[in-house]
Design goal:
Length: about 425
């Protein structure tokens, strides 16, 4: 067998430790699949004395990132630092040094992937990033290679475990958002500052990558519509259940005649759909392709060894390709670099969906007629209405409305008019609905 390929690591935290453990435990199996051994030779860390969740006795630790990317024996660099500042600089420098790159950094790829891939193409090296989306689920490989003969019509993903955990707890136990968020932070599912998770930014980074691979367009994070889950109440979760739906935070990429829809937001899904029953911190991506039809990819979206599993899979792929010329490697974004399409990304105003609305009104006659008249004026038809009984000592009652499909800009105008009615006491809550068929 050929000499083992030496790998350098930038960062040795949770994912890095999981990667080291997998490489050690499954060394023989990995070598059989890759055609040669894979050996970590050097890793950069903040604190050399810190106790690790892996055995570091077989390689060098350094506090200098540049020693890793300048090491002439290192063929592949794992970027596991995170963020988009120093990580971008180090990755570009490593590429210039002729190193292949493997990264779990979704923000880096979503924001700077176009630049990084172009540089890698020029230098004849590979950038692999399976672990950047949905943890250990091999969704990038599935779309880029397994579905290469298909035209992707749409995909919808639960791609943030924190949001999914919160919404699951709110549904199963009737808990409030703030209460569940605190528990998620205590359990390590959410950061001290959970903004990236609960406001949908993390999912938007991942959707940027999935959409590019599915549709052959450049990475365009700035064009994704993003909405968090902070306004969802336990009442909304209960009302959705009454109507036969569950609320999930979805990343949705959809091909239409006018362009691509790219959006992250809370979504009602029929409760019988498989993806509606993905609970807790688990992830899932549902892909609709013309030849295969719908297929669901489910698994752990985070964690040391689930994410490390994807990192090692990338390592095996890169080692296998070391003897291939750059022109014959799998393209970074599935399509050949000179064949990416300039398909327009639709404004959210032009997206058509079904809507769930929660409207709090004063309990008096004529209010519902006023609301429905405004809907009629904007060509919005109603599928279902639930009007709750007034409660003692509460001045307003909720009206739950499910619409037929409507263009977002029409709904925006209708909501603005309804909120000006004297009888409407609160801001209207809206959640979009997808049947995913």
């Amino acid at each position: 067998m050929l000499e083992a390929v030496k790998v350098g690591m930038l960062g040795l935290g949770t994912v890095g430790s999981g990667t080291v453990n997998i490489l050690s435990r499954n060394a023989d199996e990995i070598a059989r699949r890759a055609g040669r051994g894979i050996k970590i030779s050097i890793a950069s860390v903040r604190d050399i004395k810190k106790q690790r969740a892996c055995d570091t006795s077989g390689f060098t630790l350094t506090v200098d990132h540049n020693k890793v990317i300048a090491d002439p024996n290192v063929k592949i660099v794992l970027e596991l630092i995170g963020g988009t500042g120093i990580a971008r600089e180090l990755v570009l420098k490593a590429i210039d040094n002729g190193k292949h790159i493997i990264t779990a950094n979704k923000a880096l790829i979503a924001l700077h992937g176009n630049e990084i891939f172009q540089r890698a193409q020029e230098k004849g090296v590979t950038v692999a990033f399976e672990s950047a989306v949905a943890g250990g689920i091999p969704i990038i490989k599935a779309i880029r290679e397994g579905l290469a003969g298909n035209s992707i019509q749409w995909l919808a993903g639960i791609i943030n475990g924190t949001c999914n955990f919160i919404l699951t707890e709110m549904r199963d136990k009737g808990r409030d958002f703030d209460d569940v968020l605190k528990e998620a932070q205590q359990l390590g599912y959410a950061e001290a500052d959970p903004t990236f998770d609960i406001e949908g930014i993390d999912a938007a980074h991942k959707l940027t990558i999935l959409a590019s691979i599915a549709f052959g367009v450049p990475l365009q994070f700035e064009k994704i519509y993003t909405e968090g889950i902070t306004e969802i109440t336990s009442a909304d979760v209960a009302y959705a259940s009454e109507l036969g739906y569950r609320i999930k935070s979805l990343g949705i990429a959809k091909r239409t005649a006018n362009g691509l829809e790219l959006r992250v937001h809370p979504t009602l899904i029929p409760h019988r759909r498989l993806i509606a029953n993905v609970d807790g911190v688990m992830n899932a991506v549902l892909v609709k392709a013309d030849a295969l039809g719908p297929s669901l990819y489910y698994g752990a979206g985070a964690g040391a060894e689930p994410t490390g599993s994807a990192v090692v899979a990338d390592l095996v792929d890169v080692v296998r390709a070391l003897t291939s010329d750059p022109e014959n490697r799998v393209p970074h974004l599935a399509f050949q670099p000179d064949a990416l399409s300039n398909i327009p990304i639709l404004s959210m105003d032009d997206v058509s969906t079904v809507y769930y609305l929660r409207i709090h009104v004063q309990d008096r006659s004529g209010v519902l007629a006023d609301v429905t008249n405004i809907f009629a004026n904007h060509n919005i038809s109603i599928e279902a209405i639930i009007q709750k009984e007034p409660q003692t000592n509460i001045a307003s009652v909720p009206i739950i409305i499910l619409t037929h499909e409507v263009v977002e800009q029409n709904m925006n105008k209708a909501i603005a008019e309804i909120e000006k009615l004297e009888a409407v006491t609160n801001k209207i809550m809206r959640i979009r609905l997808e049947t995913l068929t």
